[in-house]
């Protein structure tokens, strides 16, 4: 394993005693992370160390809000992991690590709609977080997504958000397609909690400015206080992007010439105007259009909650089949249309390896090629 070769004692600290660095040990509130793994103040321990994982040399999975993610394997069990490395170069990184670890520890193994958590450890100036390895993100799927499939995806995301909002009092603050993961068996899970924020009650508000600009709500762009409705805005834009096949603000942001500051002012000016947030095509399913419009109301108080959205006709009128089944069948159809796997008639003839030996069809491998 590789990492930034620095001593944690060399880093600057601030007055926040909840995040302390001593040699290769991090004390983050109720959580302590060392080379031997993660422990909590309540005595819970995740026994995971650098020697327990084998990192794939070619398994780069993506870039999160605060670090890179690679595919790895647990040495003893052979289980696939997504290993996120966060190089510690500032006190701000420690706060991100604390937020993510606290959320993963408390929620990652308690909800089927949040990515699972296996442990964390320190190594050579970095913190490594081991999570459930999914097969791709919504940023990588072919778009536009069919309406009935989109309803199943949206329902799964809403159930994850509902768990964060109602049961955990957490605002995700960085909901976007790349932070919503899927597995080839049709599961949808929310990930990347490095900028999430805890609210003591459901009527509280947050104030800090973090997250991805494109999916940020008007109240957040304006520097106003915000609450769970900010996530609903981001969710609405994610659904719109999957339905339209592109980010709704792509053309407007193109004028910013890749400048974050210019993009900020372009979006702020657009969302402060009297015009519509986005113009949906008249051919769009009416229930879907109404669903998206409800999520992206400029007035945060006018946006529905997750619970209310789960009762919207776009969701309730969708196919009653199991959401996992609907999503899995869609992934299979995409693969077949891309001719990455043979049709049912062709499957009667065994596939051949380069050496001429008979091989079985590995559907998961073929689907993985499609979405990467």
3D structure, described in words:
With 372 residues, the protein is an alpha+beta fold. It folds into 2 domains: 8-132, 2-Layer Sandwich (Phosphorylase Kinase, domain 1), CATH 3.30.200; 136-316, Transferase(Phosphotransferase), domain 1, CATH 1.10.510.10. Helices cover 32% and strands 20% of the residues. It contains 11 helices and 17 strands. The protein has helices at residues 91-107, 147-167, 218-221, 229-244, 250-254, 260-272, 286-295, 306-309, 313-316, 323-337, 363-371; strands at 19-22, 25-28, 31-34, 37-40, 45-46, 53-63, 68-74, 80-87, 117-123, 126-132, 136-137, 170-171, 180-182, 188-190, 197-198, 351-352, 358-359. The strands form 5 sheets. A 5-stranded antiparallel beta sheet has the order 1-2-3-4-5, covered by helices on one side. A 5-stranded antiparallel beta sheet has the order 6-7-8-10-9, covered by helices on one side. Strands 11-13-14 form a 3-stranded antiparallel beta sheet. The chain is globular and about 55 Å long. It starts with 18 loop residues before the first strand and ends with a helix. Mean pLDDT is 79; it is low at 2-17, 197-211 and 340-372.
Could you list some keywords that capture this structure?
five-stranded antiparallel beta sheet; alpha+beta; kinase; ATP-binding; Protein_kinase_ATP_BS; Phosphorylase Kinase, domain 1
């Amino acid at each position: 394993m590789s990492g930034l070769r620095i001593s944690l004692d060399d880093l600057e600290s601030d007055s926040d005693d909840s995040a302390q660095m001593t040699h290769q040990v991090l004390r983050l509130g109720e959580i302590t992370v060392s080379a031997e793994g993660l422990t909590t103040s309540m005595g819970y321990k995740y026994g995971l160390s650098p020697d327990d994982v084998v990192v794939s040399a070619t398994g780069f999975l993506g870039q999160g809000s605060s670090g890179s993610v690679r595919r790895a394997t647990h040495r003893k069990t052979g289980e696939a992991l997504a290993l996120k490395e966060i190089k510690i170069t500032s006190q701000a990184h420690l706060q991100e690590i604390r937020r993510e670890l606290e959320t993963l520890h408390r929620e990652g193994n308690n909800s089927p709609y949040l990515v699972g958590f296996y442990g964390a450890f320190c190594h050579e100036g970095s913190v490594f977080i081991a999570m459930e390895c999914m097969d791709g993100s919504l940023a990588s799927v072919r778009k536009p997504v069919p309406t009935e499939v989109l309803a199943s995806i949206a329902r799964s995301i809403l159930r994850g958000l509902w768990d964060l909002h109602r049961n955990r009092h957490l605002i995700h603050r960085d909901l976007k397609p790349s932070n919503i993961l899927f597995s080839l068996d049709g599961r949808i899970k929310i990930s990347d909690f490095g900028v999430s924020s805890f609210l003591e009650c459901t009527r509280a508000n947050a104030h800090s400015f973090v997250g991805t600009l494109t999916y940020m709500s008007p109240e957040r762009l304006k520097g106003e206080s915000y609450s769970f409705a900010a996530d609903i805005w981001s969710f609405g834009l994610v659904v719109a992007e999957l339905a339209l096949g592109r980010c709704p603000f792509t053309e407007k942001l193109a004028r910013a010439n890749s400048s974050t500051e210019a993009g900020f002012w372009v979006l702020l000016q657009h969302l402060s105007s009297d015009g519509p947030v986005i113009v949906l095509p008249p051919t769009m399913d009416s229930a879907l259009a109404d669903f998206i419009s409800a999520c992206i109301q400029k007035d945060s108080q006018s946006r529905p909650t997750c619970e209310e959205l789960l009762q919207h006709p776009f969701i309730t009128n969708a196919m009653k089949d199991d959401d996992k089944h609907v999503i899995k069948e869609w992934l299979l159809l995409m693969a077949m249309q891309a001719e990455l796997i043979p049709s049912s008639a062709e499957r009667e003839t065994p596939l051949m390896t380069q050496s001429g030996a008979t091989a079985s069809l590995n559907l998961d491998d073929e689907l993985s090629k499609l979405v990467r």
